[in-house]
Amino acid sequence: MVSDVMLKRITTFGIKTTLAETRDIDALTSILAESANQSVFFCNVHMLMLAQEDSVLASAMDNADVVFADGVPVAWLQRRLTHEDAQVIRGYEVMLAICKRALETGEKIGFFGSTSEVMDNLVMNMNQRFKGLPVAYQSCPPYVQGELISSRDDLQSIRESGIKWLFVGLGCPKQEKWIVRYQNELDCHVLGVGAAFDWLSGTSKKPPEWMEKYALAWLYRLLNDPRKLWYRYLKYNTRFVFKATTVLWGHK
């Protein structure tokens, strides 16, 4: 079991999430490493609200070992519900911390998802940042609508690679559903990091830290890709505000 000293499971809008009481990413990474084969999600407003209408995603989140608040609004909601010091833990931060750890310990890592172009740039950039990074597995499955089904051979390849950490970048909710479906067949920790592949590969730019701090990361992404994101943010951000207001009013 993951230590409950700094991590606590709570219910957020009927979904189990993990309240982190520390921003010490290295310490959190060590806690994950001490347990066997952890499934780790990073929950933002989109994921939390999508889970309200997608029962498979909701079940995946409830069955994951850790579901960090990846964004100020979700951490804020955790604080308001529990009156505890909930912290934002972002996927790309944990990914970088694990790569740093892997360089020191020799623990093998793998990457699964996205396109071949993104994957090539990601591996190249990570090797430049962490000289000698033990990348033992990388795969870009073909794009499919709905859930991704992996073959026995694909799963065997992951197991035979000997990796301890597998980063999955399929996007939400596909990566969360894939992780929970196959977690027990993989002998490693599996983390759904989504957009971290694009940011760390240089394919797209990460929101500035000051925008992340003031819960404006969504605005940065919207301005950079309005045609793709305007409806998502209008729908799910609005629903989050209304549901948070209702839940917190009744929580008084």
Helix and strand arrangement:
Layout: E1 7-12, E2 15-20, H1 25-34, E3 39-43, H2 45-50, H3 55-63, E4 66-69, H4 72-82, H5 91-105, E5 109-113, H6 116-129, E6 135-139, H7 152-161, E7 165-169, H8 174-182, E8 189-192, H9 196-201, H10 209-213, H11 217-224, H12 226-251
Parallel strand pairs: 3-4, 3-8, 5-6, 5-7, 7-8
Antiparallel strand pairs: 1-2
Helix pairs in contact: 1-5, 3-8, 11-12
- The sequence of SSEs as H and E is EEHEHHEHHEHEHEHEHHHH
What general outline do the C-alpha atoms trace?
Answer: globular
Q: Average pLDDT, to the nearest integer?
A: 92
Strand order of the largest sheet: 4-3-8-7-5-6
Number of domains: 1
CATH topological fold name: Rossmann fold
Features:
252 residues, alpha/beta, six-stranded parallel sheet, two-stranded antiparallel sheet, Rossmann fold, 12 helices, single chain
Describe this structure in words.
The protein contains twelve helices and eight strands. The protein is α/β, with parallel strands linked by helices and 252 residues long. It has one domain (7-201): Rossmann fold (3-Layer(aba) Sandwich), CATH 3.40.50. β1 and β2 form a beta hairpin. α1 (25-34) packs across α5. The mean pLDDT is 92.
Q: What's a quick, concise take on this entry?
A:
With 252 residues, the chain is α/β, with parallel strands linked by helices.
